[in-house]
Amino acid sequence: MTQTLRHLVSIDDLSVEEIRALFAAADRFAADPRGHADLCPGMISASLFYEPSTRTRLSFESAMLRLGGGVITAAEMKQSSASKGESLADTVRVVGGAYSDVIVLRHPSEGAARLAAQYSPVPVINAGDGAHEHPTQTLCDLYNLHVERGRIEGLDVVLAGDLKYSRTVHSFAYALARFGANIVCVPQAGFEMPEYVLCRLREEFGVEPIRADARRLGNLASDSDAVYLTPQKPHQLSLFTDARGWEVEHVDALYMTRPQTERHGGAELSEASYLRLEKRSMAVESLRDAVVMHPLPRRDEIDSEIDSDPRSIYFKQAARGVPIRMAILGLLLGRSDLGVEPPAPRPEGVAVRVGDNPCPNPACISRTETRHVTPAFTLAGRVPLRAHCAYCSRELTFEWVGCSSTGHYHAPGAGDLRRVRPDHLVFFTDRGAAEACGFKPAARSRDGISAGSGPA
Amino acid sequence: MTQTLRHLVSIDDLSVEEIRALFAAADRFAADPRGHADLCPGMISASLFYEPSTRTRLSFESAMLRLGGGVITAAEMKQSSASKGESLADTVRVVGGAYSDVIVLRHPSEGAARLAAQYSPVPVINAGDGAHEHPTQTLCDLYNLHVERGRIEGLDVVLAGDLKYSRTVHSFAYALARFGANIVCVPQAGFEMPEYVLCRLREEFGVEPIRADARRLGNLASDSDAVYLTPQKPHQLSLFTDARGWEVEHVDALYMTRPQTERHGGAELSEASYLRLEKRSMAVESLRDAVVMHPLPRRDEIDSEIDSDPRSIYFKQAARGVPIRMAILGLLLGRSDLGVEPPAPRPEGVAVRVGDNPCPNPACISRTETRHVTPAFTLAGRVPLRAHCAYCSRELTFEWVGCSSTGHYHAPGAGDLRRVRPDHLVFFTDRGAAEACGFKPAARSRDGISAGSGPA
Amino acid sequence: MTQTLRHLVSIDDLSVEEIRALFAAADRFAADPRGHADLCPGMISASLFYEPSTRTRLSFESAMLRLGGGVITAAEMKQSSASKGESLADTVRVVGGAYSDVIVLRHPSEGAARLAAQYSPVPVINAGDGAHEHPTQTLCDLYNLHVERGRIEGLDVVLAGDLKYSRTVHSFAYALARFGANIVCVPQAGFEMPEYVLCRLREEFGVEPIRADARRLGNLASDSDAVYLTPQKPHQLSLFTDARGWEVEHVDALYMTRPQTERHGGAELSEASYLRLEKRSMAVESLRDAVVMHPLPRRDEIDSEIDSDPRSIYFKQAARGVPIRMAILGLLLGRSDLGVEPPAPRPEGVAVRVGDNPCPNPACISRTETRHVTPAFTLAGRVPLRAHCAYCSRELTFEWVGCSSTGHYHAPGAGDLRRVRPDHLVFFTDRGAAEACGFKPAARSRDGISAGSGPA
Q1: Which of B112, B106, B67, B129 has the alpha carbon at shortest distance from B334?
Q2: Could you tell me if C128 and C142 lie in one domain?
Q3: In sequence order, which residues have a C-beta less than 8 Å from that of residue C270 and are 6 or more positions away?
Q4: Which of B300, B417, C235, C359 has a CA that sits 20 to 30 A from residue B58's CA?
Q5: Of the residues B84, B235, B418, B419, which is catalytic?
Q6: Is there a cis peptide before residue A347, judged by omega within 30 degrees of 0?
Q7: For C102-190, where are the E strands, in sequence order?
Q8: B372 neighbourhood in chain A, CB within 8 Å
Q9: Is the residue at A304 inside a domain?
Q10: Integer Cα distance of C71 and C7 in angstroms
Q11: What is the ipTM of this complex?
């Protein structure tokens, strides 16, 4: 592993400037798809797919071939070595050893790509890790706005449908906020954008949700409580909003999502009642210029009668996945110098060496991979203490926090925790767990319990 | 889609002159298989296989690699995107978008390739659509005759075995007739060539079946009622036939087929009783020069003891699938100009916009694909009215025909139907269906019922 | 098939000199993995995998791509043509026809690669045939010793773990003996090296097992009865051994194997009790210089805490599979002239044309492949008569031996058998089988029964 080895685990692994430079590179690839076979000759990409995803896999493989490289493919990893009990960490060390120059990984466990990147001797590209991240999909979506609108900042983008379970839409929302676009949430009733997404939008990007008046969106929004998410300060908006909220007047892009029925865990939603984009939905004035996007595959949420509408760009959107993936491959393989700065390195996760794995996510790779994973976290706040799993990004839930140096445990709000070294922190779900690990309660005067910041 | 975009859905998409030119191209490829890698560099073929067919897939992929192109493969399509409910129409629009320059499609539904060709932005090659067509197999079979015999016209070709269920043998029979070859049918008892195949041979190619005396074929034909199919007029043959029928004297090629047990739907045929080509079968004088062909895989219908017989060309036959597929790929990718005229464009199917899907075939793509398929038909005759499904080519079965303009329905034999515009035709299985759609019976004097041409 | 067509079915298909030359070629490939794409342009390798083995397949495919060739892949052969009943012999004749220039075959039946080589028009590489052989794995293991130690002769190599069921370890043991290395067997208790392996080591390579004193191996060997296998004559060793056996003082390489639980057929061995290589195991003086090898995948038999130990080379070992496979492909495709002599041709198997298949191995291809396999054997000894299956190498078990020329049957120890032509030999499990085939007992005075060499 050299210092300059780069992975694409999360879209945050790329700076905004890099993303813009990738768009410029993708423009060149798209203009002449067969004219760049001299970029990666002799290089090999390995597709390691632990769950099938033909579309994503073929898009990457096409991109690598267009760059003049070769491809080796394991489209059904579950049924092979994995069944002999091999860990993901071992697999990427072997496949990244001499077999390939880059690994494209799809895995059902959240955080799998982060783990793979820790061990792989070659760049790892996250092609989807469970419901966590799928950065090249997000890049592709942004790239489409760039191509269709020439910019992303200041655009008004409607996100419609199942906003609760769609990984794609959450990642896209973060990315839109990062690029300064405004978001209109038009959820299927009962499938609103989750609080933790709104929270992150607020904390990271200063995005404030305000009530939206979506009557001008016509029948598309008739059933929804629309929300406008904007990085502009509410006081700046006061001129344009009244009691009914921000009025949606002109939409730049409408992003539809399918119902994520496989994650609903039951008949929560009948497909018949799902939002459906039809010819008449597209006839309203506010959508006159809106491009219609969809990450595909679609089912019935977009009627085929609007496939021929020039505003429907979802098939172009998928096609543009190839040049943007060519740009990513060229960057990670060291064959394109974008000429801009990479982002500051992501803070390393802190290994959890004492106590149980504090990640509450059963789909996290730190829980599903039984070998070679040391749970780890990143700090999100000091008082009260907040932390995220370093693999799946889920916020840790705990009632008590120990210090492995003093052997004391504290309520998360205790001021004393401010002084504990991160690698000394231990997370406990209850007092019993703390005591079982040999920890003692901190003195009342020091641990802040008297301040009422912890459970009684 | 450009005007010049060409597909290979059916062998009828190629003119006889083109096929001859493809043979010449294949000859050049076969002479120097590795000398043509400069033909399609930078181009990508996508194998979309909705059912496994390793032989066909590898043959196409080898052909593309030999042309210098790249290949992306979905060998098990059913288990991936399709399981998320994606339609074939959407899949080919995505994969043909920027992923690939040509799509090789295998699908269990009849007519699937026709549907794919309607939507794909790149050429579609039908690599088998259920029991319907497999044009490159037919081309390969013809090409083998061309190589082995130097011509096809006037050859006497024996088709032996399961002539009832073998798609391969039906397509080959049409192609032989088109090229002016004579066919000797030597069916397994009970597995005779179906009437609809004989009917099409007669209607399209003027081929008349006459009884054949196959005693000179020895034990191969001992159990069969052989039939001779020839484009020559029976009166021209009268000099050579007597009460026992046309005497089979000299065979140019013997085409064996395996029992299509997967389509027999039960223990209709024990394998032990199936025709079996053995050393002694090949000893008869009439087969002295006959090449032995088989589309493979074989089971026991050709004894391995004749594998080393120089007349056994079935392995060469399979090998020649590569150069002929190279020729097809070169043509459809626009890299070979054959210098001859393509056939007249196939008549477009007429969309069925009123009433139920008139196609009676449960395996037709118009029935199995639930999205984006509008049933369609092509007219085969006016009085009585006859029509075929535009996807699977199956003849429509109906008792009444409506006119969506007048709102009347007629018996198929009604002379009035002659004047109905094709896009106004509606097909009904019974009066009830017609009435349910709001159609009324035509007046007796005009609809020909009084002439007794419809059901009472 | 030309006279010069070569296959790699067994490592014995290569001479020691060739193997050394392959190492030299692999060194060149490893030094510049992307610098050899001009070696096999236009050539195609076909991966035919009748059971999944992602690691092996990707390694071969990477090697072929690095040589500038193309790859066609059937990763799940069982589910495709094979289900239509096609024989392996037919499949390789088709795929080796024009589809590919070399076939890489993985098959669950022992001897499958030998059968494939008989029929294939192009070179066949055995990528594992059941529990039988996997020659490129063995070559890779030897190559690692060559790279790490500069030689193989005279090295002391510890084989540890499940020595009973591991094909890899048996093949490696033969190869070490062939190259003059010494072997220290440190088996998991109950999983000792089988007698037939020791027997072959003695017969072919003059290797004598002597008791070993493995106390200096520390906790690794605490539970085992270690055995030292050396091609040196015991009397030469007498200076260094005493009642406790040869003392293991300095180990050059330690080869760990995983428990082959899939072959144990039950809960014979709990994983918890299996040998486990840990930090403290590696701290003993005797292992100071030992490289740690493992064919991978591993489970828990090597603790991940020693992954970062510079002596742990198992990931490098896997990576070196690519250059050594490049060397093999280059040789078999006729693109590398090693400049040394190939081994004397392997004796042809003698076809068994009378009586039952004498191979006792139910996993042998001669039993699992129902078409196109004639059982065959090679003679291993004349008095008593001993023979091996020509496919799976298993020793034939029989009670009586017939001569198809005289119609007599004899006890295996009968001197008369010395004069019987090999192709006249017929093997019987009992008298009944012999009599059922019409054979008669040989006269007492001539068949040696009176000498007590056969069953009563």
Answers
A1: B67
A2: no
A3: none
A4: B300
A5: B84
A6: no
A7: 102-107, 124-129, 156-161, 182-187
A8: 304
A9: no
A10: 18
A11: 0.93
Q: What pLDDT score does A281 carry?
A: 93
Phi-psi region of A154 (alpha: psi -120 to 50; beta: other; left: phi over 0): left
Find out whether the peptide bond into C384 is cis, omega within 30 degrees of 0.
yes
Q: Is B371 inside any structural domain?
A: yes
Query: Pick from B251, B270, B246: which is nearest to B259 by CA?
Result: B270
CB contact under 8 Å between A296 and B95, yes or no, is no
pLDDT tens, residue by residue, B307-342: 999 999 999 999 999 999 999 999 999 999 999 989
Specify if B142 maps to a domain. no
Burial class (CB in 10 A: 0-12, 13-18, 19+), A366: buried
Return the CA Rg of chain A: 23
- Burial of C59 from C-beta contacts in 10 A (0-12 / 13-18 / 19+): buried
- Residue A187 and residue A81 share a domain: no
- Which helix (H) or strand (E) segment holds residue C435: the answer is helix C431-436
> What are the φ and ψ backbone dihedral angles of C373, each rounded to 5 degrees?
-115, 120
Q: Does the distance separating the beta carbons of C322 and A98 come in below 8 Å? A: yes
Is the separation of the CB atoms in B9 and B135 below 8 Å?
yes
Phi, psi of B290 (to 5 degrees): -75, 130
Is residue C449 scored above 80 in pLDDT? Answer: no
Taking a C-beta distance cutoff of 8 angstroms, is the pair C58, C321 a contact? no
Q: Which two tokens stand for residue A341?
A: 């700065």
From A68's Cα to the closest Cα of chain C, the distance in A is 11
Strand order in the sheet with B376-381: B350-351, B376-381, B386-389
Average pLDDT over residues C186-213: 92
DSSP codes joined into one string, C177-223 = HHTT-EEEEEEPTT-PPPHHHHHHHHHHH--EEEEEE-GGGGGGGTT
For residue C235, how many other CB atoms are within 10 A of its CB?
A: 7
**Residue B209 belongs to what domain range?**
156-251+253-288
Tell me which chain A residues have a C-beta less than 8 angstroms from the C-beta of B43. 34
User: Do B202 and B97 have their domain in common?
Assistant: no
Instruction: Check if the beta carbon of residue A4 is closer than 8 Å to that of residue A123.
Output: no
**Closest by CA position to C369, among listed C351, C378, C357:** C357
Residue indicated by tokens 């209109």: A184
Burial class from Cβ neighbours inside 10 Å (0-12, 13-18, 19+) for residue A396 reads: buried
Cα angle C379, C380, C381 (rounded to 5 degrees) comes to: 100
